[in-house]
Specification:
Part of the tectonic-like complex (also named B9 complex). This is Tectonic-1 isoform X1. Keywords: Cilium biogenesis/degradation, Glycoprotein, Signal. It holds the Pfam family TCTN_DUF1619. The chain is built from five helices and 27 strands. It is mainly β and 616 residues long. Among the domains are: 73 residues, no CATH class; 169 residues, no CATH class; 174 residues, no CATH class. Strands 11, 12, 13, 14, 15, 16, 17 and 18 form an eight-stranded mixed sheet that branches. The chain has a seven-stranded mixed sheet with strand order 19-23-24-26-25-27-22, covered by helices on one side. Strands 2-6-5-4 form a four-stranded antiparallel sheet. Strand 7 and strand 8 form a beta hairpin. It is flat and about 125 Å long. The protein starts with a helix and ends in a 28-residue tail after the last strand.
Length: 616
């Protein structure tokens, strides 16, 4: 090894030696006010700053290195010093108090003064009185306190966080400057997006529902390095990339005006409205008003792959709205451009995009499989400027069927009630796949024959009071017990439910939330005769739940009453006719609304109010 190879080695050894060298530093002394002297405490070693030769790169500061100088000096801080140039009673840290004043104190009102209690280690000024001395004396100690909590701040490397700063209030003069400084409002144009090359993207690239939030302009910043290989993972809320930039989803920003640089987010369903201030004579030059602006982009199947992985946007439907609000559906999906038409003194712009609805299908692996687009085009005249546009985007997983609901969350009038039964205690609610057959009643027909309509039922629809019936002809030879079984099967049907869902979107596993069906049997006063069921009356009590502005229908009680009468006797002939009926009644059990004001919220904080400073 020559002299040239020894020089870097010597420099490295010198740097290592300097980083572990220590210099002594004296801990502030413990002082006793009065007729005593100052006593020095023991010294503790402190690591020195590492030395490095000129021209070598600066090494990263370790976590155990020197910390920034605190802004607050606890030895000079006194929170009980309320009067200037005067000694406050029992204020042991008051610099205006003399030894004679300390001798008449009864106690220290503030025994300890310290800075931020969230640090793992910090300075603390401790004040006490020594009553054994004559006269009594004040004792002052400056010590290092250790925070026993595992959630503590070990080191602060952001010095502005040690003090409060006055935020810059936006106004008409500095608004543009603040918008450029903060990139969290919207992600901007194509030039700020970097794509990886084909060889840099691994085969496992995908959009994935992963919690990796980022406002960075670098799309490759959310890489996930797994053990053994590298996988580029998209994240929930990641912008959908296209062949040239990203899929734009106009949205209102600071006001109701549309911002075209807002990206569509993966797996985030959105529906927004915004307005545009347009000049009618320049409508042909505004790209956001044209159909091609929304149908021409090609979405990347996986992030970063631009070749053989582009999904075109298919125009599924186009509706034309005239000035009198009539709608016409176009048979073909040709791209129509906005056109300025002059009719005398009146100028109108036709084929202007009013509504945009994206429907994106994704696979279980997190890849975009299909993209659909539905548009509403209209005609804009002078009086309707500014223009309001609506934008929607929905994500649907491939090879899955949406579960139909009767409301979300409250029931919708006209939709069937969700019901089921619990086979055993502790299990979930079992429901039939046919939601129109979960809670049913008899279905009336023109023949009025119960045996002819056996098995034909009609669903119980929320909010609809219904009544149905039929005639049952019983032969003379049939016994009462057989007739009772037959009539009960006709009234209740097959698999009468035990529970009814309180809301239209109630989950079957939440058994405790479901409303049990109270079954009541009412018989006639004649106890000796056989009782034959003749009617089933279902009473559903519901209430308005939630806000007065948007109340939701909630079922609170369901009662099924089985009415019986004595078994009819045959007077003449060989048959007996019994009238069978079913009825459903919905009762609004909502309490009347009372005017009032919501109480002021109270904060039950267990953490210090500045626990999350400076982040919140």
């Amino acid at each position: 090894m020559g002299p040239q190879g020894l020089l870097p080695l010597l420099l490295m050894l010198l740097d290592c030696w300097a980083s572990v060298s220590a210099q002594t530093r004296a801990t502030p002394p413990v002082t006793t006010e009065g007729l005593n002297s100052t006593q020095a405490a023991r010294t503790t070693p402190r690591p020195a700053l590492s030395l490095r030769p000129p021209g070598t790169p600066k090494a990263s500061v370790p976590s155990s290195g020197p910390r920034p100088t605190p802004v607050t000096d606890v030895a000079a801080l006194c929170v009980c010093d309320l009067t200037p140039a005067q000694c406050d009673v029992n204020c042991c840290c008051d610099p205006d108090c003399s030894s004679m004043d300390f001798s008449v104190f009864s106690a220290c009102s503030v025994p300890i003064v310290m800075g931020d209690s969230q640090f793992c280690s910090q300075k603390a000024a401790i004040y006490s009185l020594n009553f054994t001395a004559n006269p009594p004396q004040r004792v002052f100690k400056l010590v290092n306190r250790i925070n026993p909590s595992i959630f503590c701040i070990h080191i602060t490397n952001y010095k502005p966080a040690l003090s409060f700063i006055n935020p810059e209030v936006p106004d008409e003069n500095n608004f543009d400057k603040l918008m450029k400084k903060s990139d969290g409002f919207a992600l901007s144009s194509e030039s700020e997006i970097s794509f990886a090359t084909q060889s840099d993207i691994p085969a496992t690239a995908k959009y994935k529902n992963s919690l990796c939030f980022s406002t960075s302009k670098d799309a490759a910043e959310c890489l996930s390095h797994a053990s053994g290989d590298t996988e580029w993972i998209g994240w929930y809320g990641a912008r959908l990339q296209t062949s040239d930039s990203f899929l734009r989803f106009p949205s209102p920003l600071m006001s109701s005006l549309c911002t075209d640089d807002n990206p569509a987010a993966f797996l985030v369903n959105q529906a927004v409205k915004c307005t545009r201030r347009i000049n009618l004579e320049q409508c042909e030059e505004i790209e956001a008003l044209g159909m091609a602006y929304y149908s021409s982009p090609k979405i990347l199947r996986v992030p970063g792959l631009r070749t053989k992985a582009e999904i075109p946007i298919t125009v599924q439907s186009v509706l034309i709205q005239s000035l009198n609000k009539t709608l016409t559906r176009l048979e073909d999906s040709l791209v129509l451009n906005q056109t300025l038409v002059e009719a005398g003194d009146v100028k109108i712009c036709t084929n202007v995009v009013l509504e945009v609805k994206y429907s994106l299908t994704y696979t279980e692996a997190g890849e975009i499989a299909q993209a659909g687009l539905a548009l509403l085009l209209g005609t804009v005249s002078g009086p309707v400027v500014p223009l309001e546009q609506k934008f929607e985007i929905h994500f649907i997983q491939q090879n899955t069927k949406p579960v139909p609901l009767s409301g979300n969350p409250g029931y919708v009038v006209g939709l069937p009630l969700a019901a089921g039964f619990q086979p055993q205690k502790g299990s979930g609610i079992i429901q039939t796949t046919n939601r129109f057959g979960q809670l049913t009643i008899l279905r009336s027909t023109a023949e009025q024959d119960c045996l002819a309509v056996e098995g034909i039922r009609t669903p119980v629809l929320f909010g609809y009071d219904m009544q149905s019936g039929c005639k049952l002809r019983l032969p003379k030879a049939i016994t009462c017990q057989l007739a009772v079984q037959k009539v009960k099967s006709l009234l209740k049907g097959q698999g009468f439910p035990d529970y009814v869902a309180p809301f239209g979107n109630s989950q079957a596993q939440d058994v405790l939330d479901w409303v049990p069906v109270h079954f009541i049997t009412q018989a006639s006063h004649m106890k000796d005769s056989c009782q034959l069921p003749v009617a089933l009356v279902i009473e559903v009590k519901w209430t308005k739940y939630g806000s007065l502005l948007n109340p939701q229908a909630k079922i609170v009680n369901v009662t099924a009453s089985l009415l019986s009468s004595s078994f009819p006797e045959t007077n003449s002939g060989n048959e007996r006719t019994v009238l069978i009926s079913t009825a459903v009644a919905f009762v609004d059990a909502s309490a009347p609304a009372e005017a009032g004001f919501r109480a002021q919220p109270t904060i039950d904080a267990r953490l210090p109010f500045d626990f999350f400073f400076p982040f919140v």
